[in-house]
Amino acid sequence: MANVTVYNMEGNEVGTMELNDAVFGVEVNEHLVHLAVVRQLANKRQGTQKAKTRSEVSGGGRKPWRQKGTGHARQGSIRAPQWTGGGVVFAPVPRDYSVKMNKKERRAALKSALTSKVQDNKFVVVDSLTMAEPKTKEMQRVLNNLKAEKALIVIAADDKNIALSARNIENVQLSTVNCINVYDVMKHQTVVVTKDAVASIEEVYA
């Protein structure tokens, strides 16, 4: 099992913690991680874009001028794509962008993402993370103590004070254990996790 150092909010070492290899010590599968990121970004797309083709634009039923003898190029409709107000060539239509991925693959991808952060020493465990009141400056101080930039903070359960303290810090995102995903883990440089959150992750994914 991998051992990681546990820090307090002041950035001081207060002990070590063993991580479960079934979650944090798997063989990293980059292909699955890629598929999971593609799936998540694709599923966020609304797919509601729409433009009209020449068959859907109103008007243009009559040939604008006769075929020959005018000196103009021949034209069949004023709603052809080359005309102002005409239809769009290969216009986009509403579609479903969603990508499917098996549950086992999704879990394996998340384990790979977490393992890669542990291997890169970008997985920071904190003994506890508490805020007496919402204070952005205090949360920023804690992150500075932990040398965590562009961080994903993972806590075991919702905490309003922590959420309000972290929401206005640039490149910092807060997540609970039941909401962590591959894209958020890979997008952020450092993952800051409380001991309770680590235990919850191991309980769910081991």
Automatic annotation (TrEMBL):
InterPro entries: Ribosomal_uL4, Ribosomal_uL4-like, Ribosomal_uL4_dom_sf
A GO BP entry: translation
Family under the similarity heading: Belongs to the universal ribosomal protein uL4 family.
Superkingdom: Bacteria
Example of a GO cellular component annotation carried by this entry: ribonucleoprotein complex
Keywords: Ribonucleoprotein, Ribosomal protein, RNA-binding, rRNA-binding
Gene that this sequence comes from: rplD
Annotated GO MF terms: rRNA binding; structural constituent of ribosome
Organism: Candidatus Blautia faecigallinarum
Region (Disordered), start-end ranges: 43-80
Cited function: One of the primary rRNA binding proteins, this protein initially binds near the 5'-end of the 23S rRNA. It is important during the early stages of 50S assembly. It makes multiple contacts with different domains of the 23S rRNA in the assembled 50S subunit and ribosome. Forms part of the polypeptide exit tunnel.
PANTHER family: 50S RIBOSOMAL PROTEIN L4, LARGE RIBOSOMAL SUBUNIT PROTEIN UL4M
Protein name listed in UniProt: Large ribosomal subunit protein uL4
